[in-house]
Amino acid sequence: VWASSLVSAEMVAEVKPGAELIDSASASLEDVAAAYQRAHDEGLLVARVHTGDPSIYGATGEQYEQCRQLGLDYETVPGVSAYSATAARMNAEITIPEVCQSFILTRLEGGRTPMPPRETVRGFAAHGATMALYLSAARNKQLQDELLAGGYPPQTPVIIGHRVSWPDQVVLRCRLDELSATMKDHKFWKHTVILV
């Protein structure tokens, strides 16, 4: 079970002969639950191929609960998170002595999944810590505005990672005040992590 919208097709290209591929990109949680039920009923092994770090915005808690309810054993094999892969591709250090020793991982509020009211990009930006932002590419102008309003200077360095670790990955640098224009120029609407 894999999501083609989040995982490169190369990751599942060499499946075991006879294995069934189920693309969950447009599947509901109930659709995935049916695959787990079938695995239970038929004694099958399921590999749920997820993004790099399944504990970040992965809805894994719901899937673990389904497995527990069915009595299915499960194991999580962690991968490399997009923020970590992006930093590594640019030989960038996330924590810099004398500059920043804290790291915030978040997303722009106002999307499909509600955010707690205290968790805002503007509020986090006030800390001046290094920040990784997921699920915010489509609203890049709002993201830039909130980061600037929170207190990051316009010249703050930003790294944009698009489809990092995929064959067509793009990783580049810009200033914070150039973030929105850069993302629009490259048409980065999805599959993008931003490091500030």
Write a structural description.
It is a single chain. The chain has 196 residues and is of the alpha+beta class. 29% of the residues lie in helices and 13% in strands. The protein contains six helices and five strands. Strands 1-2-5-3-4 form a five-stranded mixed β-sheet, sandwiched between helices. A hairpin with a 7-residue loop joins strand 3 (157-162) and strand 4. The longest helix has 14 residues, at 29-42. It is elongated. The mean pLDDT is 91.
- Provide mean pLDDT, rounded: 91
Specify the number of helices. 6
The largest sheet, given as strand count, sense and whether it forms a barrel, is: 5 strands, mixed
Helix content: 25-40%
Task: Quickly list its features.
alpha+beta, 196 residues, 29% helix, 6 helices, single chain
Could you give a quick summary of the protein structure above?
This protein has 196 residues and is of the alpha+beta class. Helices cover 29% and strands 13% of the residues.
SSE blueprint:
Layout lengths: L28 H14 L17 H11 L11 H8 L13 E5 L13 H5 L4 E5 L5 H11 L6 E6 L7 E6 L3 H8 L5 E4 L1
Parallel strand pairs: 1-2
Antiparallel strand pairs: 2-5, 3-4, 3-5
Helix pairs in contact: 1-2, 5-6
